[in-house]
Amino acid sequence: MKIVSWNVNGLRAIMKKGFKESVMELDPDILFIQETKMQEDQLVEEIYLKELGYTLTMHSGVRKGYSSVAVYTRIPVDEIIKGSGIEEYDAEGRVIQVNVGDYAIFGIYFPNGGRGEERLAYKMRFYDDLLVKFDALKESGKKVIITGDFNVAHNEIDLANPETNQKTSGFLPIERDWFTKLLSHGYVDAWRARNPEEVKYTWWDQRFRARDRNAGWRIDYFVVSENVLEDVDDLTIYNDIMGSDHCPLSLTLKGE
């Protein structure tokens, strides 16, 4: 089972930038999308990707053109759950969960904390409340996979300019400490565990043409509970796939 995550920075926009062809190249069984920036009533036929065998499920926020997540599936799944069950977060359309056998797989667009203290506080509440949810599933025996745009670079190796971003949301000590806390609860940054010294990014600031210089941040992850690690066959970050300010990443689980 191949799982792909991609913050597309607007699903309608990326449809005009070779999205279908990129999905064909990625060939995912489950494709989580963040920042669709659209409502269900804005869907048109081409977005469904039915000709590629996918079923599309969306969880949109109340505010139009903002946030929102979705998942494409082409394999049988047990359940798709829209939202976290917490109204404060679900109004922004940030969480979608796919259950397949023993796996509870989350596609999440974590908040950006860069718009003042109130928004940073919202982000930290979101982090902590979702961790409670992950832990409850793990403790019940589920194999938990969390993917999406976490909006935090954990360590200095995860961004091009750590020295100048010490006070920038996404690299604040409080945000990085939460990621450390997450890992201490029995989770693993799967790509970093396999590639402890490799420098690779998943997001580049479009305002400064940062992708041209590869001055990026690794803020998109697959974080998995420790009981998933032995199931992982492959992990890939696709820096060469364009269309968004983020690139896609994948985790492939071993077959039976």
UniProtKB/TrEMBL annotation:
Marked site positions, Transition state stabilizer: N151
Positions bearing the site annotation: Important for catalytic activity: D220
InterPro entries xrefs: AP_endonuc_1, AP_endonuclease_F1_BS, AP_endonuclease_F1_CS, Endo/exonu/phosph_ase_sf, Endo/exonuclease/phosphatase
Alphabetically ordered keywords of this record: Hydrolase, Magnesium, Manganese, Metal-binding
Cofactor note: Probably binds two magnesium or manganese ions per subunit.
Residues the record marks as site: Interaction with DNA substrate: H246
Residues annotated to bind Mg(2+): N7, E35, D149, N151, D245, H246
MF (Gene Ontology): DNA binding; DNA-(apurinic or apyrimidinic site) endonuclease activity; double-stranded DNA 3'-5' DNA exonuclease activity; metal ion binding; phosphoric diester hydrolase activity
Cofactor: Mn(2+); Mg(2+)
Protein name: Exodeoxyribonuclease III
Organism whose genome encodes this protein: Proteiniclasticum aestuarii
